[in-house]
Amino acid sequence: MKKFQFEFDVTSFNTFFPYFILFDKNYIVKFHSTLLANYFSELNDATSILDHFKINSSNSDLSGKVTLSSIQTKDFQLIGQINSYNEDLLFIGSPIDTFISSEKLNKYSKSNIKLQDRQEDQLVLLSLIAEKNINSVIICDSEGNIEWVNSSFIAMSGFSFEELVGKKPGHILQGKESSLEQINYLRTQIRNGLPFKCELINYKKSGEKYWVKIQGQALYSKEGKILKYFAIQEDITNTINLKSQKDELANNVAKTNKDLESYALIASHDLKAPIRSIYSLITFLKEDNDLNQNSKEYLTIIENKLEKMNRQIDGILDYAQIDKEAFIYEDVNCNEIIKNSIENFVIPENIEITILQNLPTIRADKYRLQQLFQKVVCNAINFIDKPKGIVEIDFKEDKKSYIFSIKDNGKGVALESQRHLFNISKYFNNNDRSTGLGLSIAKKIVEMLNGKIWIESELGVGTTFYIELKK
Predict the structure, then answer these.
(1) 369 Cβ partners below 8 Å, 6+ apart?
(2) How many CA atoms lie within 13 A of 66 on its CB side?
(3) pTM (2 decimals)?
(4) Please, are residues 410 and 425 in contact by the beta-carbon 8 Å criterion?
């Protein structure tokens, strides 16, 4: 039994495949076509298909052609195929009778729906639907030659009805850019009498190419022979063009990002060289005993600015490089990570960092996790303005995640600034100890770990950062 190749949709199937039944492995009906509902009002969802039909198949696994014979109405049979769809089974077929009279329809229908007095066969019904369909509809004979098309097909292809009848669709519509793989797929499905769906390039009479989504099925005689083929073609040229433009834009963005990364590496190297030179000159000048106190203070200010610029360059490099190496997941003890992070800081004497409880061991990339906590804890330290600074680290967990918190009693963040806090292009600060890049790097790491980061803050009181990491 083959797996159904495209998405099941009740509305589409009522138009494209008027005789379908979706049922589970216990044969309980989930959905069925509106047309069948007209014939069998007792074929309700949640009832067993075996209460209404006897299933005959040449193979025990229901592969190949399958016949559904009505138990209540002995002269009504459907022939088609059963495919697997997720955990369910999907029957698609057509009546074996090629001529369904109004008397039969009235006999099968248990509702008060008024049907036409006469229908030549089920193609009449399909044609009535198809002529009103905005998509192109085509009916071919058992040899694959065109018998009928609707007005939308004529408008889409540019060929007249007379130019199409008796021809094979592929001979007229397909060209040098039509996918050979999809053409072979269509031929195989049609030859085996199976439902088909694919996307293909066709050509209009003018030579203009266009994309179509094709889906259809075979219609069978009472003896199980293929009589005709019924298919619908939807013009998806605009959709394909938009996708192509989107892909091209994505490629351009990727190239631009790569160029920016290369520029960042080169620029950082070029910027660090003069910074080192300026440092050396300042050190030399400070050794000059003829400098007055004001001059020495100005040189110290320059040193501090250079130091911040150096950290900013390092931050830009960290941000550009953070996702360039593969993640290595391992069991990471968060207590060790936090302690290692704290040891890398120069912590002012008035600030105390406390871990409120034993932290968990989680699966993560050790280097990036340490970098994450370093950035957030460092940010807390830099913005504490109280005589006694406090940073408290804690966590809680639920079934799906760990939520870490880093709480400080610093300046706090104004509400209007909170939404820009993690944005590398919008958030700036005038803190000499902070470059403004640390939280952008933290957010990038958290997102790479499929987590979330957010804050709660009150001006003058302090800020709590929350980091949620999935288990």
Answers:
(1) 332, 334, 337, 362, 445, 449
(2) 23
(3) 0.42
(4) no
Q: Which two tokens stand for residue 10?
A: 């009740």
88-to-31, 61, 84, 301 alpha-carbon distances in Å: 11, 14, 6, 73
- Whose CA is closest to 17, among 26, 25, 8? 8
Sign of the C-alpha dihedral computed for residues 451, 453, 456 and 461 taken in this order: positive
Pairing of strands 389-397, 351-355: parallel
State how far the Cα of 402 lies from the Cα of 405, in Å rounded to an integer: 10
Distance CA 202, CA 242 (A): 18
401-408 β-sheet, strand order: 351-355, 389-397, 401-408, 462-470, 452-458
How far apart CA 321 and CA 315 sit, in angstroms, is 10
Question: How does pLDDT run along the chain (471 residues), one tens digit per residue?
Answer: 555 555 566 776 776 677 889 999 999 999 888 878 877 777 877 789 998 899 988 777 777 778 888 887 767 888 888 888 888 888 888 776 433 333 443 444 433 333 333 333 445 545 545 455 567 888 898 888 998 888 889 999 999 999 999 999 999 999 999 999 999 999 898 888 888 999 999 999 999 999 999 988 888 776 778 888 888 888 999 999 888 888 888 888 777 767 666 766 666 667 777 888 888 888 888 777 777 888 888 888 888 888 877 777 777 777 766 766 677 889 999 999 888 878 877 788 899 999 999 999 999 999 889 889 988 998 899 889 999 999 999 999 998 999 999 999 999 998 888 888 887 655 455 555 555 578 888 998 999 888 999 999 999 999 999 999 998
122 contacts: CB under 8 Å, gap ≥ 6: 18, 94, 95, 98, 100, 219
Give the other-Cβ count within 10 Å of 201's Cβ.
18
Would you tell me how many other CB atoms lie within 10 Å of the CB of residue 226? 18
CA nearest 229: which of 240, 220, 241? 220
HSE value, Cβ hemisphere, 13 Å, CA-based, for 420: 10
Single-letter amino acid code for the residue at 460: G
